[in-house]
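WP5 quarterly update. Target: Protein kinase domain-containing protein. Source organism: Balaenoptera physalus. Length: 80 aa.
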Amino acid sequence: GQLNESMDHGGVGPYELGMEHCEKFEISETSVNRGPEKIRPECFELLRVLGKGGYGKVFQVRKVTGANTGKIFAMKVLKK
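Structure tokens (predicted):
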């Protein structure tokens, strides 16, 4: 889906998002695609922009299909 520019809040500190208690783990092909479920961008709903940089943006997203439905994640989207 298209990102609505009104969702763009720029860089936000972790305490403003209440993320100080979030679990952190490394994302890799094997950690994301464990088992038969294939994770694709369509599996997530974009919630807000967490940060921007020269190589892309980081979005706060909610999983909407499969395992972990409803869980909040960060998704880094790189420019081609």
